[in-house]
Design a protein that fits this description.
About 30% of the residues lie in helices and about 30% in strands. With about 130 residues, it is α+β, with helices and mostly antiparallel strands. The chain has one domain. Strands 3-2-1-4 form a four-stranded mixed beta sheet. The longest helix has 18 residues, at about 80-95.
Length: about 130
């Protein structure tokens, strides 16, 4: 039986703003299994900012990316605890539909790494050898 080893979110530059300096990031959230394979959890997340890439930092992008993949902030009469429970239960159901048995409480305790694409890193940390 597959065991979930960690959560991984891959952050990339959003395709529709590649030609601009406006920060726009897509986030693909996955569960990495003990055999190294990954199972998709969420691919509909991301964020934009009016800030320029040159004003961004690797750690800032990582922090914001972790936030946008959940759990969501409370709204209405929902508490943060309610939103957290819903989030982890939802991820558990996604994994179960793909044949991976794991409890929501286990998912909550897993390490969560955010990996930045080469394209995104190039926006934050320009190549010093590039002419321009």
């Amino acid at each position: 039986m597959a065991v979930v080893r960690r959560l991984v979110t891959v952050a990339d530059v959003t395709d529709d703003v590649v030609a601009t300096d406006q920060v726009s990031v897509s986030a693909r959230h996955e569960a990495e299994l003990d055999d190294g394979s990954r199972v998709l959890l969420l691919d509909d997340r991301g964020w934009s900012s009016s800030a320029c890439w040159s004003d961004s930092s690797v750690e800032g992008v990582r922090e914001t990316t972790r936030v946008v993949v959940g759990p969501d902030a409370p709204s209405g009469d929902r508490s943060y605890e309610d939103m957290e429970a819903d989030h982890w239960s939802s991820l558990q159901r996604i994994l179960e539909r793909q044949g991976v048995a794991v409890h929501a409480s286990e998912l909550r305790r897993l390490p969560h790494d955010v990996l930045l694409s080469r394209q995104l890193l190039a926006r934050i940390v320009p190549d010093p050898g590039a002419s321009g």
